[in-house]
Write a structure and sequence with these properties.
With about 160 residues, the chain is mainly β. It has one domain: Jelly Rolls, CATH 2.60.120.10. It contains 2 helices and 13 strands, in the order ββββββββββαβαββ. Strands 1, 4, 5, 7, 8, 9, 10, 12 and 13 form a 9-stranded mixed sheet that branches. A two-stranded antiparallel sheet has the order 2-3. β7 and β8 form a beta hairpin.
Length: about 160
């Protein structure tokens, strides 16, 4: 399994100002997700982690400010558990349909732009319902599996093997 990062293109920099193209081909939805201070999305419930999973939306999450750590679970992938320490320089993290995901910000918070690709069956009412791992042995097993950890290091996106 290979994660996809859609690159940004810095086209102008001046003192204290950076201009970059963050276009995502085929995007037809834009969400701004603001974490003010330390935040978890979706939040835990009943002492258990919760995850979002989309059936009709592919996420392309680009950190605009701060950092965001994503946990991705997909029982259909050869490596079912991934942790991505996402920074703007890495580009937009693509989260395919059927992938359980949650994100955490540090004390400073973070700002993310999600340039989503939504199919005609997309509705807000059904795509943002948290899934609690308490009643999901498959997700509990995925969380217990060694994680592939992705991060920016020495000018490259690097994956630490599971």
């Amino acid at each position: 399994m290979r994660l996809t990062f859609v690159p940004i293109h810095v086209f102008r920099e001046t003192p204290a100002v950076t201009f970059f193209d963050a276009s995502v081909p085929e995007s037809n939805g834009s969400d701004v997700v603001l974490h003010t201070g330390a935040a978890v999305s979706p939040p835990d419930a009943g002492g258990f982690q919760q995850f979002y999973v989309h059936a009709h939306q592919i996420d392309h999450n680009l950190v605009l400010q701060g950092r965001r750590t994503y946990t991705l679970l997909n029982p259909a992938w050869p490596h079912v558990h991934h942790v991505v320490h996402l920074e703007r320089v890495m580009g937009a993290l693509q989260i395919p349909t059927g992938t359980y995901h949650r994100s955490v910000s540090g004390e400073e918070g973070s700002l993310v732009l999600n340039q989503a690709t939504r199919d005609p069956e997309f509705t807000y009412a059904t795509e943002f319902i948290p899934v609690n791992v308490e009643q999901r042995p498959d997700l509990q097993a995925a969380l217990a599996a060694p994680a592939c950890v992705w991060r920016w290091r020495n000018g490259h996106i690097c994956r630490d093997p599971a």
